[in-house]
């Protein structure tokens, strides 16, 4: 691609960004980075009624946590700023005026009640009311195409409520291009004359979006499928302004786990999985939503999972680092059809990413959990524990359940296992084992294993008679990693103490 690639993520700050929004941002980020381009964040806050005060910061925090920060946007490299549409208010009027002058837009003075009347009348006749060429020049509608110039000007001057509508063309076949969906043909007769600007001085989404994409030199618009119905209007607007169009790519929906219907913000709570990247506190209700971060997901796993919701690399590979995603990502490999979200797959991704992390990094994470419990151990010890248990973990939060016995001796024993494995002769065997173990402090796991097994063989008893009660004494249950690795790590002294406690207690 020859020119500088510039893409934008343009959320409306109406609440927390959900995972679908993060995926849109991610695909923009990947596309930009793959082409050494620029990833812009623009806050589309023209709809002040739906504005939520903490949403913008949430969006920025979510991008940062996901590892996909913007290059240009609020407070950062403000080359084409400001990046909040509410701060660009003065810019848009001139463009609305330009369209009116060129005959591509007009003033409309119809009140909401009058429009309702029209709608009702049409319905009674079994028709649908569309504000476009069908009706706009018939006297019944009050707009500057019908009223005299003087009358229209008078209304504006006296402060009547008005909107500026786009004059969509009659009887034209539009051929639109989408990088994912290919060619789309639209008959302009079905388009309504969308509102571009309102008498309160605010543009609507459509006008602000097009003007800003143009002024910010956006080359590719990558956004959700829900904006596909706006594509025709947007292309017509570019033509009306005589501006070069960006390329468009509309991403498929993310579907509910059942496969039908768009995944919604409410699904998370209802179905028991996170849909938000970060916890979000609703400023009105004070309610805090569940999130990927707080549920213990690694951002790398979250992003990897999102990348594959709608895109595939064309190979069997599923695990990707962000860098690999940047290398592999192609818009042409994004699918047209919706991508079903699977909460199980999300946890699988976390498990996989956890396995590929170094023991040092995981130990670092685990240390903070331990510290919260008031437990502090030597770093190398924690690294060794992690190396023994991590294959069984999905989240770092699982580490404690898998390894508590490395940090504190069991206070009680799993009853069912004890009943089955702790027999009458067990204390005697365990006391003999203590004698063997006394010689084995600071020995590596393999040596301890050889020595203990030699002794068992000499004694001529079954392995289970020793191993199971021994595990029960050390762990408190019949679980955990290789027994001799546990002994090596906690040491023979501690092992003996635990066996003695088991003998006393069981
Ligand atoms: N503000 C729109 C949104 O909230 C942006 C749509 C677009 O990317 O054009 O999704």
Global Rg: 33 Å
CATH architecture of the largest domain: 3-Layer(aba) Sandwich
Q: How are the strands of the biggest sheet laid out side by side?
A: 3-4-7
Integer average pLDDT: 95
Describe the protein.
The protein has about 500 residues and is mainly α. The chain has four domains: about 5-75 and about 205-255, HUPs (Rossmann fold); about 90-200, Glutamyl-tRNA Synthetase, Domain 3 (Glutamyl-tRNA Synthetase, domain 3, Alpha-Beta Complex); about 360-405, Orthogonal Bundle (Helicase, Ruva Protein, domain 3), CATH 1.10.8; about 415-505, Arc Repressor Mutant, subunit A. It is about 45% helix and about 10% strand. The protein is built from 20 helices and eleven strands. The chain has helices at about 20-35, 55-65, 90-100, 110-125, 150-155, 205-215, 230-240, 265-270, 300-305, 320-330, 345-355, 360-370, 380-390, 400-405, 415-420, 425-440, 445-460, 465-475, 485-490, 490-505, and strands spanning about 5-10, 40, 105-110, 165, 175-180, 180-185, 195-200, 220-225, 245-250, 255, 340. The strands form five sheets. The chain has a three-stranded antiparallel β-sheet with strand order 3-4-7. Helix 1 (about 20-35) links the parallel strand 1 (about 5-10) and strand 2. It is elongated. The mean pLDDT is about 95. Bound molecules: glutamic acid.
